[in-house]
Specification:
Layout: H1 4-7, H2 12-28, E1 33-36, H3 45-56, E2 60-64, E3 92-97, E4 113-118, E5 122-125, E6 131-134, H4 137-154, H5 160-168, H6 190-199
Parallel strand pairs: 1-2, 2-3, 3-4
Antiparallel strand pairs: 5-6
Helix pairs in contact: 2-3, 4-6, 5-6
Length: 200
């Protein structure tokens, strides 16, 4: 982003208020899905209130879980730091996997994670109209937001919690026991989630 240096130095309170304002704007202008590839270490009252408003208006909200990896290196023995907005109630938090379905080493391992999606070497539009290969829970978040948008486009009246259920109950690569803090309930499956939404 050519303007990154300007807002990279802004105090977190200013950034969080900007986020709250952005969520409010999106809701007021008819957004059905909000995708947030961002993360902060502390919660914020204004953002939480804006998210509640979004939820009350039937908006599906999705956020990247963060790129802090697993502090323990290879297991769930320790958890990555909490990341907001992914850790707020009602927000669908997304971890990242590679093309083989393996957990990305950078993907935050914590209990906010609900689903995972491709997040390693994902093609995305960069500067000057060129495509870049990007990695992070940010592109994984965008993939899940796209699936949520597909569901909402076909079933606009489906409540956010039911969209979340469609996403989490139709995953592939479901972990032993049904859940873990790396991939949540598993890797999203667009076709299966859409079919589940039809039943819901």
């Amino acid at each position: 982003d050519p303007h990154y240096s300007r807002y990279a130095r802004e105090p977190e309170a200013v950034i969080q208020q900007s986020l709250a304002s952005g969520i409010d704007y999106a809701v007021q202008h008819g957004a059905e899905v909000i995708s947030m590839s961002i993360g902060y270490s502390a919660p914020n009252g204004a953002v939480r209130q804006a998210l509640q408003q979004a939820y009350d208006h039937g908006v599906v909200v999705i956020a990247s879980a963060g790129n802090s990896g697993a502090p323990s290196g290879t297991s769930d023995a320790a958890q990555a730091p909490e990341s907001f907005p992914a850790d707020y109630p009602g927000v669908i938090s997304v971890g990242a996997v590679n093309s083989a379905g393996q957990v990305a080493s950078f993907s935050s391992d914590n209990l906010s994670v609900q689903v995972a999606a491709p997040g390693v070497s994902v093609p995305a539009q960069g500067r000057d109209g060129q495509y870049w290969m990007v990695s992070g829970t940010s592109p994984a978040c965008a993939v899940v937001a796209g699936i949520a948008a597909l569901i909402k486009s076909k079933y606009p009246g489906l409540a956010p919690n039911l969209v979340a259920l469609a996403l989490t109950s139709t995953t592939t690569g479901r972990p032993a026991g049904g859940y873990n803090s790396q991939v949540g309930f598993g890797i999203v499956n667009a076709a299966a989630a859409l079919a589940k939404a039809d039943k819901l």
